Input
Amino acid sequence: MRAHPLPELQAKPSRRTLVLGAVLLTLLLLLSQGRPLPLGDPWQRLSLRQILVGLEVSRREAIVREYLSLKASAQILAGRPGAVAVSRLLRLEFYNQRRNRSSAFGSPEEALAASRRWLEALGALKRGQTPNTRDLPLALERVLPYRQEISQAAQRLHFPSGVLAAIVDNEEYGGDKAMGLSRGIRSLADGLAESLSESTGSAGPLSRTLGLAQMSWEDALKQQRRLKHFAAWPYASFPRTELEARQALEDPAKNLLLTASRLRGYFNAALGLSWSNTRYLAGHWLYYLGPAWHNWPTGARQQATWPYAFHGFFKGMFYQALFAAH
Output
């Protein structure tokens, strides 16, 4: 006679087990909120020596020693979270260099030297001294007059002011150094565009970004919902037309609020938060994400380390300390 196996008895989970499982799942979701989504890039699974594979051993070991020295300095100046972020940026820069991806420098030594200069300036700030910024890509004279407006905009959208200051510095320094349109050409284009929008209602493709942080008027018109949700727009009316958006963006305080709102939308999406989440965001990696995404969203997604992103990270740390000291 053919034997048939008896069906396995499946225990029905008790009510207590189901409740406990639901509680654990809820706690897991809550604890994971606000953390960067896991990244699948292989560089995160490689040791520093694996990233630098192919270099002469003596050169590689010299790079490793300086990297560890910089990481130790960063920990003294910015605590363990700051050191982890500096380490992450350098490892990413080295990885991008070795694989011919978009990077800020042509060699690890150049990246280490630039990082050392930034940490020296940050260290001077922390000691209450005037930092030597002569050879750093900074536009201090164009950022500091708007320190209050930058701080207020970032505070109203609940993220560190250093992030927004770094974006403004990148745009202003870029205007001076021809990293984008030169300042004179950009101002002329903005003026022509506003004249066209006054006379025809639209400037067409001419000068779509403008103002202190170089934001597009189209993006400006999309910020009303978020700014209202954060109770962050202190003005009687919100721009509704291209001309009104352009005029708002030419006002530094309004430009910074609109830019901060757009940036907050990106942060919420990148960190897996709902559009309506208003919690205060913190973490040194925001200093990379903010300037990188504002300048080149695709590059930020690809974790490129072109000059805007690399220096923007250190600018964020620098301005955060500078604003806190005054």
In short: Strands lie at 209-210, 215-216. Residues 47-136 form one domain. The chain is about 60% helix and 0% strand. The CA atoms of residues 167 and 292 lie 9 Å apart.
